């Protein structure tokens, strides 16, 4: 499905020496910054846009589990190279990737796959838990009056099930853009969702160079870059590290984010 990534990145990723962890390997584990391009060339960040699945909520494991179950029926195994191509996308787009990449399209349609997946997922999503550092970062930015928004490939029904236990935290977002929003014509890696999110802040369209996106998925990182935004990637460690190269900064956890590096107010507990 290589052709499903129509947007070619065209920015320069100068690996930076500004952050101590990039020059001193001993500090690297301390900071848990996997890699970093210089944020200084981007100008200070004024607005933040969060992805949801796999970044704020530990929901990617549900998709993985269900897809493993479905594939086992065909004596096939689900792996992280397929996962990398599906994650972050709208449901139907991910479903097409699944049936094509597994060679099942003749026996299983994308629609039938979705129906079967849905039946299992709807029982799992209400148990969704927050990822480490998600609550701390959202609450910090909100308290410091940094405008924050959510941009998730999830459609409304899934969004509601996943956030059932976390309504108060998600209400801190200035706005939420979902995968089934009419303005999101194409899912990630198209920039549609991030451009829609940037438009809906109170003070009108935000200059993309002043927007920082947090993402876990390769398609989401590309979508942010296609929208000309800066992006911090917090990938699952099982994802191939070649997917890190497109991000401006790669962290092991949201807990390792240093707002000051991006011109954002520092944590008071740091
Ligand atoms: O955009 P996010 O929030 O990762 O959601 C996509 C999703 O439906 C699962 O991969
Ligand atoms: Mg995600």
Task: Describe the structure using short key phrases.
270 residues, 7 strands, disordered N terminus, globular, DNA polymerase, domain 1, binds magnesium ion, Rossmann fold, alpha/beta, hydrolase, glycerol-1-phosphatase, PGP-like_dom2
Provide structural commentary.
With 270 residues, the protein is an alpha/beta fold. It has two domains: 171 residues, HAD superfamily/HAD-like (Rossmann fold), CATH 3.40.50.1000; 67 residues, DNA polymerase, domain 1 (Orthogonal Bundle). The protein has eleven helices and seven strands. Strand 5, helix 11 and strand 6 form a beta-alpha-beta unit. Helix 3 crosses helix 6 and helix 5 packs across helix 6. The N terminus is likely disordered. The structure holds SN-glycerol-1-phosphate and magnesium ion. SN-glycerol-1-phosphate binds next to loops.
Whole-number total of structural domains: 2
Mean pLDDT: 87
Structural class: alpha/beta
Report on the biggest sheet.
7 strands, mixed
Low-confidence stretches: 1-31
CATH architecture of the largest domain: 3-Layer(aba) Sandwich
Please tell me how large the radius of gyration is.
18 Å
CATH class of the largest domain: Alpha Beta
Biggest sheet strand order reads: 1-7-6-5-2-3-4
How much strand content do the residues show? 5-15%
- Secondary-structure element string: HHEEHHHHHEHHEHEHEE
* Distance N to C terminus: 43 Å
Number of strands: 7
- Fraction of helical residues: 25-40%
Q: Find the CATH topology of the largest domain.
A: Rossmann fold
Bound molecules: SN-glycerol-1-phosphate, magnesium ion
Bulk shape: globular
Supply the CATH superfamily name of the largest domain: HAD superfamily/HAD-like
């Amino acid at each position: 499905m290589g052709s499903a990534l129509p947007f070619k990145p065209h920015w320069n990723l100068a690996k930076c020496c500004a952050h101590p962890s990039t020059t001193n390997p001993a500090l690297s584990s301390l900071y848990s910054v996997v890699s970093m391009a210089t944020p200084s060339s981007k100008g200070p960040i004024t607005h933040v846009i969060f992805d949801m699945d796999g970044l704020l909520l530990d929901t990617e494991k549900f998709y993985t589990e269900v897809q493993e179950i479905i594939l086992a029926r065909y004596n096939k195994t689900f792996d992280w190279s397929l996962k990398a191509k599906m994650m972050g996308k709208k449901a139907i787009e991910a479903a097409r990737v699944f049936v094509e990449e597994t060679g099942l399209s003749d026996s299983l349609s994308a629609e039938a796959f979705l129906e079967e997946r849905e039946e299992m997922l709807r029982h799992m999503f209400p148990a969704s838990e927050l990822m480490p550092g998600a609550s701390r970062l959202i609450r910090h930015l909100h308290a410091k009056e940094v405008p924050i928004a959510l941009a998730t490939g999830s459609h409304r029904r899934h969004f509601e099930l996943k956030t059932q236990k976390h309504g108060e935290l998600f209400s801190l977002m200035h706005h939420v853009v979902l995968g089934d929003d009419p303005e999101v014509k194409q899912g990630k890696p198209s920039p549609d969702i991030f451009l829609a999110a940037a438009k809906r802040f109170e003070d009108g369209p935000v200059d993309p160079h002043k927007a920082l996106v947090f993402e876990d998925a390769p398609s989401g990182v590309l979508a942010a870059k296609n929208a000309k935004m800066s992006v911090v990637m917090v990938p699952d460690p099982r994802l191939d590290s070649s997917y890190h190269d497109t991000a401006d900064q790669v962290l092991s956890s949201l807990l390792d984010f240093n707002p000051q590096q991006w011109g954002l107010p520092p944590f008071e507990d740091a």
